[in-house]
Amino acid sequence: MGEVKLIATTQSLFCTRVEWALKLKGVEYEFIEEEDLRNKSPLLLKYNPVHKKVPLLLHHGKPIAESLVILEYIEETWKENPLLPQDPYERALARFWAQFLGDKCVFGAWEAAHKAEGEEKTKAIESAQESLAFLEKQIAGKKYFGGEEIGFLDIVAGWIPHWLSVMEEVGGMKLLEAEKFPLLHEWAHNFIQIPLIRECIPPREKLLDYFNASISYMRSLATNKQ
Amino acid sequence: MGEVKLIATTQSLFCTRVEWALKLKGVEYEFIEEEDLRNKSPLLLKYNPVHKKVPLLLHHGKPIAESLVILEYIEETWKENPLLPQDPYERALARFWAQFLGDKCVFGAWEAAHKAEGEEKTKAIESAQESLAFLEKQIAGKKYFGGEEIGFLDIVAGWIPHWLSVMEEVGGMKLLEAEKFPLLHEWAHNFIQIPLIRECIPPREKLLDYFNASISYMRSLATNKQ
């Protein structure tokens, strides 16, 4: 099926989504690490002039950007091991929750993590937990979001077991409380045990360094604004 | 194919996307006007408890939210008159630019419109025009984004001829300058001439009232913040 390259950073949860999908489909690819996001590579600037962001998939030299768009492309190009359900309504639900996971859950958790202690942080934690509560309902009665096997939505939610716990640590808070979210908690535990999933996750120490640096930066911006 | 209902407001460009898709597919539907977005109907709150937003499609009583998710659902459920290209790479491009149109172009135009005169407005206008410039390149050599016939991306960009000109008027600015964006300008002219497209657009006076009220509200918020 031609040459596949992935321009990505190991610490980005959006990049790891794509790696998981490629591995689940059994697609061989070359991983090209984007070393420094403050000083972007000519390759990234050439192929993603619009957003200048990773992940970027190159297939036969043609670029595809935005993680959810890439996942749909992978699904349509390599048909084996379908990630999306077959039924149009189930597909619509997977797409809806995938969007929600990025817009509300990732963004919400990050908001809660980087705010300094105070009223704003408390509100951000409440808001992030409201989003997780919607997600909790989606997993009821299933082992994975995809059913008995992992699928599209599991991949998109897959940052929760690893990245969220790092955000919790650096942000000095707990979002995914086991008593509040027993189903998500169990799902996270099951998901992260899968060898193919574990293979792609970055070392915890590296993520801690990355998020600690990001939080310091965000807080310095907030202080300068005041 | 069962009962189809669309909960929507006539002034929302996100709702009109869905109406266009249904009409292009020849799908009969009942339009249920959501009268007052500040006082949402029990129907909307019941079926879209997550975002509480229009448009909401009900098919056989099952709800689908988010305009791009609804468009994909319509495409997969009613196969006649395909909106997306067949080639996976072309489909990925359509999805990428559809996302861009919402995140950057709609949002960018609205930012530029509601800011009061000053440095921030000038910057917002520049930024919105940078986004339009990316879009201008996508239409080069084609009558429509979809080629000879309108497709997915035309529907998603379809707010430009009508809604953007209203935003320009209420915002006291010009974004889609004919000299800067000759191809988009011509596309907009061609698109809005199509009878089926014209049928669904709200009266200009109604949109003007709506956007004038929205701008007054945004500016009062900005003034209270200072």
How would you describe the overall organization of this protein?
The structure is a homodimer of 226-residue chains. With 226 residues, the first copy, chain A, is of the alpha+beta class. The first copy, chain A, has two domains: 74 residues, Glutaredoxin (3-Layer(aba) Sandwich), CATH 3.40.30.10; 138 residues, Glutathione S-transferase Yfyf (Class Pi), Chain A, domain 2, CATH 1.20.1050. Chain A is 59% helix and 8% strand. Chain A has ten helices and four strands. The first copy, chain A, has a four-stranded mixed sheet, with helices on one face. The longest helix of chain A is centred in the middle third of the chain and has 27 residues. Chain A is globular. The N and C termini of chain A lie far apart (54 Å). Chains A and B meet through strand 4, helix 3 and helix 4 of A and strand 4, helix 3 and helix 4 of B.
Summarize the structure.
Chain A is α+β, with helices and mostly antiparallel strands.
> Mind telling me the C-alpha Rg of chain A?
18 Å
Under the CATH scheme, which architecture of the largest domain in chain A would be assigned? Up-down Bundle
> Greatest chain-chain interface?
A-B, 22 and 21 residues
Q: Note poorly predicted spans of chain A.
A: none
Q: Give me the oligomer status.
A: homodimer
Helical segment count of chain A: 10
Please bin the fraction of helical residues of chain A.
55-70%
SSE diagram, text form:
Two copies of one chain form a homodimer.
Chain A: E1 4-8, H1 13-24, E2 30-33, H2 42-47, E3 56-59, E4 62-65, H3 67-77, H4 88-114, H5 119-138, H6 152-157, H7 160-171, H8 182-193, H9 195-199, H10 204-225
